[in-house]
Amino acid sequence: MLSNFEPMRLILIFIISAALGTMSIFGATPELAPTPTVPAAAAEQGKDVVHQLNNAFAKVFEVVAPSVVIIEVSKKADNETSAFEDLFFQGPPDDNNNSRRSPRSFQPVQSEGSGFIVRPDGYIFTNFHVVESADKIDVKLKDGREFPAKVVGTDEKTDVAVIKIDAKDLPAAQLGDSDLARVGQFAFAIGAPFKLDYTFTYGVISGKGRSKLLATSGYSISDYLQTDASINPGNSGGPLCDIDGRVIGMNTLINGINRGLGFAIPINMAREIGDELIAGRKIMRPWLGIRIETLGDDPSIRDLFKGIDKGVVVRRIEADAPAYKSDLQPGDVITHVDANQVTTDSQLQHEILKKKIGQKVELTVWRKGKTLKVPVTTGELPNEISRASNEPVQPPQEKQQEVGKFGLQVQELTKEMAQRFKLGVQKGVIVTDVADNSLAAQQGIEREDVITEVDDKPVTDVKSFREALNQSNPKRGVLLYLDRKGSKTFAVLKAEGAEAPPDR
To answer: Does the active-site annotation cover 133?
Structure first.
């Protein structure tokens, strides 16, 4: 503890120090003159490096900008906006940094995006969402010329589109190799954010292989390039370039506005899709018809997979999909596609996309402690995943029985009901209601789901369903196999704090 005199002593020391500092400010001559910290020659050399970098940045714009186009789109107004419009065309922020949306009207909607010329005869790459549902497309070049454009082809799943203008000898962009892009290298974006034509921003490649940013019909790009170069609405479809002026990506997806998170489709993927569209070919992709996740992504189901550390969990098998016609089951863990190991959902998708439609693949799966080989023949990825029936199931209310702690109401599935509603199974119990905020609701169980198994025990009626629940362990998690309008999936009901049932 300080004595009464200590504070005074500290104040005096502070005053004396300040006074000495004041003396040197007002003319006190130090004994030794300060020496420069950076030698003059080194400082001059540093300036040269900065000038070289400055010239390199400016050169990127001078080289690339002539191949960049501004795309003005007019489309009919409606009462709904697409998912892409919600993401990209929500307008600049207001004073409180909130997005502004224009009031809905039935006047033609005007929007603006970007693109880049890939062939001197007028072919241009841009985003699908930029030209989606367009009634009129106008393209403005850097030299001021304007042309009407037509859509050559689009691919919604990758958000790539090709449009064409009637012109020749146009400056085409030099396309690079996105596989060679490195995290940390300079990246440059050119476009028209907020209708500010030919805006040039720079940053670095912040990441590669970004996934699960946007999914369309169960398909998602898993290779986005991430950059902190400023990308805003209007940049969509424009090029992301390296320091040599080569296009390495197509700007597409933003995460908020001016938050340092921009995303671009790798140019290798955009070029592959674009070349197919220019050639007039339909984009066809193989698929198995399964919804998957990396083992470990969902901690709530981890206890069900003791004995395996890596793999890809089959969460759902779509109705009438190739996997539905195989022996694959929900809850299987896929570890290999043919001889290639897969440990993430992205790796599994890549392996399947390498295959041809109609090609047989052998999946190595882990199922309840056993390793199995499951052959599946790939099919064509559809534009939309069909459902077995759109007619709502309305079973008689008086036959419903409630399963208390889980928040479920179920009824026995009859053969007549299965036939009437074209359900994929003939036996089980059908979920007639799910309580709000219940355990069942939290696990995504829906009305009209048909429960066919509980912890590997077949369910044929309400009685067998209740017996299986009584024998289950809610603390470990109760595994339910479900048929959802023809597709197969599973859910785990895990009651926190529940006691395990006694040994039987």
So the answer is: no
β-pairing, 136-140 vs 215-216, is unpaired
Out of 155, 159, 223, 449, the active site residue is 159
**Cβ(165)–Cβ(228) below 8 Å:** no
Q: Could you identify the residue written with the tokens 């960049």?
A: 68
Task: Collect all residues with Cβ–Cβ distance below 8 Å to 195 and sequence separation of at least 6.
Answer: 112, 234
- Whole-prediction pTM value? 0.70
* Residues found in the chain: 504
Angstrom CA distances, 10 to 14, 20, 432, stand at 6, 16, 78
Q: What does the DSSP 8-state code read for residue 359?
A: -
> Does 105 qualify as catalytic in the annotation?
no
Please compute, for residue 338, the number of CA atoms within 13 A of its CA located in the half-sphere on the CB side: 12
Give the tens place of pLDDT for each residue, 40-70: 776 677 678 888 989 999 999 999 999 999 9
User: CB count, 10 Å around CB of 61?
Assistant: 17
What confidence tens digit (pLDDT) does each residue in 279-305 have? Answer: 999 888 999 999 999 998 888 788 788
The catalytic residue among 114, 236, 346, 472 is 236
To the query of whether residue 129 is one of the catalytic residues in this protein, the response is yes
The one catalytic residue in 129, 223, 346, 487 is 129
Residue bearing tokens 């109401």:
409
